[in-house]
Queue: 2 jobs
Job 1
Amino acid sequence: MPLRKAHSVLPGFGLAMGFTLLYLSLVVLIPLSTLFWKSASLGPAGFWQAVTSPRVVASYKLTFGASLVAAAINGAFGLVVAWVLVRYRFRGRRLMDALVDFPFALPTAVAGIALTTLYAPNGWLGAPLAKLGIKAAFTPLGITLALTFIGLPFVVRTLQPVLESLDPASSSSPATCP
Amino acid sequence: MSRKHVFVVTLLLAAASAAPAVAQELLNVSYDPTRELYQEFNAAFIRDWQAKTGKAVTIQQSHGGAAKQARAVIDGLEADVVTLALAYDIDAIAASGLLARDWQKRLPSNSSPYTSTIVFLVRKGNPKGIRDWGDLVKPGVQVITPNPKTSGGARWNYLAAWAYARRQSGGSDAKAKDFVTALFKNVPVLDSGARGSTTTFVQRGIGDVLLAWENEAFLSIQELGPDKVDIVVPSLSILAEPPVTIVDKVVDKKGTRAVAQAYLEYLYTPEGQEIAARHFYRPRLEAVAKKYAAAFPRVNLITIDDVFGGWQKAQRTHFADGGIFDQIYQPR
């Protein structure tokens, strides 16, 4: 400890670390521990039964399956979006860049209602899909669409700095539009 | 805002909250479709209470699936009164010690100031020809109902379907189980409360038939106009008694027992009964019931006590963890 203290550039490491631990505990650890504490009241057998019941297992499959598909979609198309935003300078780029954060900013309940309205059999996109015999709202497809919507900013915001560091030209010469 | 302003505002707020003449506030935690009923009822009660006592009272409402709402009260939502969809959910609150176990004897008519039943809401002209419970299990019929694990209305739906199957010639518990299994195979979306299901059926256009509270079905027709949906009354349904009571621990802590008691009793007065009837809840008071008799269809009603031996038993058999609903509603 004394060694690290001596090398620390920031003053008040102890205070900052103490605050960080307290803050993380209040915001993250305490709510999480309630979860464990509550489920511990079931006892090991009850807990095992609850987490392995067929309906719960079906929910794992749906959650992980849909998330994986959504992540794959975002991985591909999010990369394109990030690439365009980093590589090129064009009108409306900043607006587009801000729009990427939109799914972050929108409360999930609001996003859910908007997406269901859109994809319900009588919605703008749901009606043509229903004619093709595709049901989107309240199906695994709908869940995947919602997860794709929510996941986009995570992919783009993670890739942007990486692409920027790969591409030193973009920061020095803005007019490299082909 | 300058720092001085903030200070003054804080002082004012502190003074306002400490003032003795501040209006009492009631929280009514209710089930999903009673929003409109209690909006009108609350306004009427506030006027009545002001006239009788000269005191002001404000009333907050909270709505959601009945079992979910009961859970919230047990977990600490400070409801002065609960007005839920069925007795078991209030029993569950009583079991947590928040109110007296004999709560259902405290007000007349099993503490249910109004009753209702379960009917079908179908698309205009009834294109799928749905006339009775038996039509709900036909292939290609999509049935909308909320989730019996969270919603009171959904449990009434389920039990009415069960009672119907049980009453058919050659009916047995095994046959009834097969029947509700087939019925729930036709359910594409399980919302958590009755209003959610109404939205799915009416706004989202999903499903051929909605199993609905009678009041919710009438309200949908009133809201949408009679050219969108029709009500179908099945050959048999269940007498639903949504009960009300005071949450003792909360009113004693907040000092609101008198006003909470008056609030619930006002439901039984001619004024309260009229408001209930106008919102399509069947009134208990003879005079009001007669006046609105023509508004309600005649339905062959069974009761939970006769067919299922009361709510405690019905809940244990059908809706508790590992109960019949858990057995029949499995991933396919």
Job 2
Amino acid sequence: MKRILVGIKRVVDYNVRIRVKPDGSGVAIDGVKMSINPFDEIALEEALRIRERGGADEVLAASVGPADCQQQLRTALAMGADRALHVQADGVLEPLVVARALLKLVEREQPLLVILGKQAIDDDNGQTGQLLAALWNRPQATYASKLELADGSARVTREVDAGLETLEVDLPAVVTTDLRLNEPRYVKLPDIMKAKKKPLDTLGLEALGVSPRQQLRLVRFEPPPQRQKGIRVKDAAELVAALKKKGLL
Amino acid sequence: MSARILVVAEHDGTRLNPSTAKCVSCAGTLAGAEIVVAVCAADAAAVAAQAAQLAGVSRVLTVENPANRHALAAVLAPQVVALAAPFSHVLGPSTTFGKDLMARVAGLLDAPQVSDIMAIESAQRFRRPIYAGNAILTVELAGGGKVVGTVRAASFEAAATGGSAPIEKVALHLELPTHTRFVSVSAAKTDRPDLQTARRVISGGRALGSADGFKILYSLADKIGAAVGASRAAVDAGYAPNEMQVGQTGKIIAPELYVAVGISGAIQHLTGIKDARTIVAINKDGEAPIFEVADFGLVGDLFQIIPEIEKLVG
Ligand SMILES: Cc1cc2nc3c(=O)[nH]c(=O)nc-3n(C[C@H](O)[C@H](O)[C@H](O)COP(=O)(O)OP(=O)(O)OC[C@H]3O[C@@H](n4cnc5c(N)ncnc54)[C@H](O)[C@@H]3O)c2cc1C
Ligand SMILES: Nc1ncnc2c1ncn2[C@@H]1O[C@H](COP(=O)(O)O)[C@@H](O)[C@H]1O
């Protein structure tokens, strides 16, 4: 069975303007819209396209976190994932813990490819894919904008600071997605109904043998410094004069 | 016990990337820290010589191996780990090179990583942005072990030069993985300044309408010696290459002058320019959110305004 495992993180929707709680203990996320991390939607879309081309038989969506994650897993099933795995875990989850949990799933499911997002847009850590690849002792191809599977290997084009880099990696491997890899499909209503019948299994983090250790204490959350509101200029001449005066031109 | 910090150098085989000087200056904010730079290369001499000049660096370690010709995280990580033993902190830049590599290093070390460090408050305490910069989080190392970090370059000035640290060759006898192979890189050749270090940046958004539309920005940029950036929408539409994307998931920059042309100012874009000294916004919609952060705002049609500016500065 050729399987692709995809990470699905539940995050505050990217359109929500988040606020820091006045006591600095966190960000206020009660009642705000939650979604699949955008990069994970791209990961799932890529896996589905590979399966649709015949490059894989099964797409597995996995999420680590509290029971609410099942909402995002259901959405992933509605998008087209075949099965979902929920690793139940509460409290702060550091990337290393998530990577260890994903490694346990990888050992059970033996995927040919794991596709994660390049970063979660809540914590902006950008670590989990590389951590998993390190723990698994397998190749990583991060920031993918193109992914081509061959027999036993993959060719991945990566968005790097200099431009585009192409790597060849042996399979199995971990790939993380960048924005240009694809445009995720919309979920259709009948698929939401069908998704209710697809298998979604829950496992316990500690039952998997992963300790939820927290190595970084979250001391304080603060709002960022605000920029001073500037001035309006009436035309190009006034703008250029103002910039020259400040020594910027 | 004072901190011992290993900084992993980013380079292209001949030139040290400016992000490394920023990592050194970040490390230098920790009083009394010993700062050592590691250069893993096929031929390390030229890069090591540049690293040795950075103020505050006490030693440069070089690891030479033909496998290091291209920076592959899977190949470099075990080498960095082999060097890391005596160090309390292992830092790299928050560039695609550093983000790709350092987390793999953290995985091999089984150590926590602090991403995008914007300030070091103590050997155990760090500040970093989360939620696209909408919150700043202070974290503290709970145990006494090693910590890995990536440094948000826009938060630090480059370390000065003028030092002359000793360079030591280190021979590592490691079996390096061959499961990851470099195929090619395509980088646009340009004479414009590098986006990440440029003093002036002009960025274009969806409003430019085409790759051709961007030409008016290139022309003005060349007149004033600026780099050119782009919004995600402009990159997605193919008007500009991916390496020009500025923002939460693109490049985070801190130029003295940032000119946003036909960019609405989505939160993900603003994250990339928070540290710009002066922001100019040119947009035909007076209500566009970019004006909330702009020091100078000009409402109007960019296709008329940009050529006018070019004439005025010429
Ligand atoms: C996960 C994720 C990550 C993202 N990361 C990034 C990122 O790193 N960087 C980034 O930029 N975005 C990012 N985005 C996208 C972001 O949310 C916005 O969609 C994007 O920045 C919009 O680009 P824009 O301002 O060019 O386009 P638009 O929002 O369409 O704005 C175009 C602007 O041009 C103006 N305009 C039109 N015609 C003219 C004219 N003739 N003259 C003057 N003004 C004109 C309009 O008034 C409008 O304000 C991300 C989004 C997500 C979901
Ligand atoms: N709790 C989680 N459950 C499932 N996948 C996750 C989780 N956390 C992170 N990931 C995956 O790892 C990627 C990078 O996350 P991060 O390292 O937290 O920025 C995400 O885009 C997901 O694909």
